[in-house]
Amino acid sequence: MTVPHRARVGIRGGRAVAAAPVCIVAALSFALSGCSAADQPLDLRTAAPAQQVQAASALSPAPPTWIEIPRIGARSSLLPMGLNPDRTVETPSVHEPMQAGWYRYSPTPGEVGPAVVLGHVNGDGQDGIFARLDELRPGDEVRIGREDGQVARFVVHRMAQEPKSGFPRDEVYGDTTDPQLRLITCGGSFDRSARSYRDNIIAFATFVGTVQGG
């Protein structure tokens, strides 16, 4: 499945970036080959309600190098993901399902705006780095290491399960007044004919400061 990107250029954190108002998430939909190794239904319809989280002051831009999510035991380096020649969004190789990627046309984690990190739920018959992303709940912590040596700490404030056909692109990629983070993988029921999950699991998180770690 191919997905047109149709990016527009905006300004975040004092620098030009390519925003993604049109479903790069069908990139993140992993219909490309990612989330297709097993029937692994996920359901967030009974997820805990969203909560308010006070954002910390933004950091200067610095590319991310790794991500850690203690609740689900996930840790990975972060590869910068751009666009394929056909304007679809790059994803980590399905043959390395434990590898996460940062969409490099989004803000860097800790910078004003929504940083976007994507990962497979499975691949090559194995669990992926975000196999348990659906288990996150408001209040859970996400840590992201940056090239400047700082470790940005985020707190999940909302979880969502959305059909790929109706992906909430403005909520995910739209400009924000404070530093935010979006984690995205596949979920919902498995479409065997398309060999892809029908939904996306999305964690929305807010930057709350820096911590020691590495």
Automatic annotation (TrEMBL):
PROSITE patterns: PROKAR_LIPOPROTEIN. It comes from the Bacteria. This is Class F sortase. The keyword Transport does not apply. Residues 1-38 form the signal peptide. Keywords: Hydrolase, Signal. CDD domains: Sortase_F (cd05829).
